[in-house]
Design goal:
alpha+beta, 3-stranded antiparallel β-sheet, 11 helices, globular, binds adenosine monophosphate, binds zinc ion
Length: 319
Amino acid sequence: MDGTFSHDVAFEDLDEPPASTPTFLDRLFDQGLLVRTGVDGLYGRSGAFESVVDAVDRMISGIGAGDGAEVMRFPPGMSRAVFERSGYLKSFPNLAGTVHSFCGHEADHAGLLACLDAGEDWTGDQAATDIVLTPAACYPLYPLAAERGALPAEGRLFDLQSYCFRREPSLEPTRMQMFRMREYVRMGSPEQVLAFRESWLARGEAMIRDLRLPLAIDVANDPFFGRAGRMLANNQRAQGLKFELNVPVNSLDKPTACLSFNYHQDHFGTTWELRQADGAVAHTACVGFGMERITLALLRHHGLDLTAWPESVRARLWG
Ligand code: AMP
Ligand code: ZN
């Protein structure tokens, strides 16, 4: 965890190319690996791209296979009531996506169509529904776990994957507005959840090394909003609550977080009244894998032609 790219792998120069040469994103579009939608950070994926996502997903499952995690899959939308209570809006109001729907009557409908025809704002009769877009795969889980009552003595472990939404449009292909996050989530005593995080720090590093990608693990912070947010970010760093496994993808200067290792302390335990077997508030931690980011890191370092990837990498993914 010394913050240097310690893995000795040859790869092409990652410095930004001159303006005339296509960017990494352009090359992904040109090869058809990602498909333009007209919105920055919102892309289609080709079969080849998805074959890598699927292989990485299987690889993660293989690494965690002996742990007995309970598998759960949620749709990419979650309960607005749960979202409101989770505290997300305190920390990241700018990233949240809410689902709104037409709630007017027939006359309002005519007005909507007239606005649409005139190229004017037609959204006046759209109202918030009881669904918001999931910002991280683990958000829907905590209240459901709490509903089951106190944790057993050994705690609990869940395996999640979901499309997530964050309103952060960007031309960097690694910063998408809709992307998939695979997670393992541990609930239990501080010792149990910290041991989980330690083990995944080692497993995550070994996994990315197996894929022959350069990496560095660093302490990190979430992008908390506003001035109060800066204090939260500083605290998070000072207490070592979040680590990220970074791989240079877009540039060497600003490597991309492909895996995150988060210790929430008793934040979700308190919020959702989740208890340990002895009645103490439960602690939680999660490891999150950015499925598109890992795929993009592989494409950046091993090339856009999957058949030309190093044999050891192909064997690890598809062997
Ligand atoms: P976080 O909850 O921010 O720690 O995110 C968990 C993982 O999701 C990160 O380690 C990234 O790999 C991935 N991720 C976060 N934001 C994005 C994004 N905008 N686009 C693609 N992947 C992302
Ligand atoms: Zn999580």
